[in-house]
Amino acid sequence: MYDVIVIGAGAAGMMAAVTAGRLGARTCLLERNEKPGKKIYITGKGRCNLTNACETEELFSHVVTNPKFLYSSFYSMTNWDVIDFFEKSGVRTKVERGERVFPVSDKSSDVIRALWNECRESGVDIRFHSQVSGLLKHGDTIKGVKLSDKTVIEAAAVVAACGGKSYAGTGSDGAGFELAKQMGHQIRPCLPGLVPMNLCEDEAGQMQGLSLKNVELCFYTMDNGKKKERYREFGEMMFTHFGITGPIVLSASSRLGELIGTQVVYVQLDCKPALTKEKLHRRIVRDFEANPNVSFHNALGGLLPKSLIPVVIRRTGTDGRKPVNQITKEDRERLVQQIKGLTFTVDSLRGWNEAIITRGGVSVREVNPSTMESRLVKHLYFAGEMLDLDALTGGFNLQIAWSTGYLAGMSAAE
User: Fold this and answer.
1) What is the DSSP letter of 85?
2) Counting runs of H as helices and runs of E as strands, what totals does the chain give?
3) Interacting residues of 81 by C-beta distance below 8 A, sequence separation 6+
4) What is the model's pLDDT at position 197?
5) Cα Rg for the chain, rounded, in angstroms?
6) Secondary structure element (H or E) that encloses residue 103, with its range
7) What confidence tens digit (pLDDT) does each residue in 24-72 have?
8) Which pLDDT value is given to residue 45?
9) CA-CA distance, 223 to 218, in Å (whole number)?
10) At what angle do helices 309-316 and 329-340 cross, to 10 degrees?
11) Backbone angles phi, psi at 268, to 5 degrees
12) DSSP string covering 172-232, please?
């Protein structure tokens, strides 16, 4: 018999367990894998983007789904509280471009180790190879859990932090949603979030591996013959054999997930967003005048990456072998148009095996935002990716995990 059972030793689960343990609750942390934090280990390409060092109020603008629900959570454990928690746990942090917070060591294993140590120091009873097959309740009140080996563990409160459906190999295969359904909860449709995009054009494959910084992508649809902008972002992206990926693409996938597949979505790449078309045109004229006998193709080496040049030239319709002293004003205008607006058609999003997060989950209408407690079953709490919450890249999704885990653990212990 425990005071609190936490299901899932991921970011939200371990934070919930630490919090409950620190408050004196007899806490049991159940994990189906052989070790904790498998998904934390691979986040941020193994570096673990802990949170974001923006002003706390700015966190909400980076949440895509149900940001208002997170008001109590974010202020119960702010991004600055998260940084302080890990600093005090022995993880020195640093702030990089975009206010992203990482361990100084660049090792996600240090984050896992810190959480693991805090769990043990808080007196949490940790059990591995323990898969929960069902939740137990009496009337409208939770009573404990049943494991796949038929073991029954009783508790006064249960925190479900089982993860979503992304990176199923880490244990988050959607099983937690089935537990919530058993208790009568509605599951909002789940979609891959923060995921690369497939393009219709095969030119992406010709530029495979090309990484671009300080560019701008504009995603739009055509409504009654008029261009309707849907999302615009400045930053980094990369071409792959299937299409595009990178921070601004991943963020766009979460903003446009429901739209892609129901309408034709175009993406326009501005390779030189810092230059107006007029300034870019003058820059090209100067480059051409400096080397008048160089071919059109070779004259663009100082302006564009090597693998991008053939695609841009082909789009202009100008012969790349043509000397630049024979390039007309119309040729240059078409070149400017392509550099500032190289357009592709989005075919679809990539699948679950490449998704960083899950969009959708337990309906937040059925959860008390002040406590993370179910409105349907007393003393049942939800945290992390199980909830219908998701955010853009930059440490915001882990902040959701820390904050909701903390609030759920605190409420369950109380």
Assistant:
1) H
2) 12, 20
3) none
4) 97
5) 25
6) strand 100-103
7) 999 999 999 999 999 899 888 899 999 999 999 999 999 999 999 999 9
8) 85
9) 16
10) 130
11) -110, 125
12) -SSHHHHHHHHTT--EEEEEEES--EEESSTHHHHTTT-EEEEEEEEEEEEETTEEEEEEE
Distance between CA atoms of 253 and 275, rounded to whole angstroms?
27
Q: What is the DSSP string of 267-308?
A: EEEES-TTS-HHHHHHHHHHHHHHSTTSBTTGGGTTTS-GGG
Q: How many CA atoms lie within 13 A of 235 on its CB side?
A: 16
Strands 100-103 and 141-147 come out as unpaired
If you search the block for the tokens 């090209």, which residue do you land on?
284
Sign of CA dihedral 393, 398, 400, 401: positive
Task: Find tokens 């054009």 and name the residue.
Answer: 201
Give the residue ranges of the chain where pLDDT is below 50: none
The answer to whether the beta carbons of residues 413 and 373 sit under 8 Å apart is no
φ and ψ at residue 47, rounded to 5 degrees: -100, -25
Q: Strand 125-127 to strand 100-103: parallel, antiparallel, or no bridges (unpaired)?
A: unpaired
For 278-320, how does the pLDDT look when each residue is reduced to its tens digit (9 = 90+)?
999 999 999 999 989 999 999 999 999 999 999 999 999 999 9
Candidates 330, 334, 328, 324; CA nearest to 295 is 324
The token pair at 113 is 């180790």
Q: How high is the pLDDT of residue 258?
A: 86
Cα→Cα distances 406→17, 131, 235, 413, Å = 8, 22, 32, 11
Q: How far is CA 309 from CA 94, 281, 326, 372, in A?
A: 37, 16, 18, 53
Instruction: Quote the CA–CA distance of 309 and 238 in Å, as a whole number.
Output: 15
Structure tokens at 126: 């940790």
Which stretch of DSSP H or E encloses residue 409? helix 396-413
Q: Give the up-direction half-sphere exposure of residue 142: CA atoms within 13 A in the CB hemisphere.
A: 35
Strands lying side by side in the sheet with 51-52: 51-52, 100-103, 93-96
Residues 242 and 265: their CA atoms lie apart, in Å, by 16
Nearest CA-CA partner of 232 in 220, 223, 250: 220
DSSP 43: G
With beta carbons less than 8 A apart as the criterion, state whether 401 and 181 touch.
no
Q: Is 250 left (phi over 0), alpha (psi -120 to 50) or beta?
A: alpha
Of the chain, the end-to-end C-alpha distance in Å amounts to 16
pTM greater than 0.85 = yes
Report the C-alpha gap between 207 and 217 in whole angstroms: 17
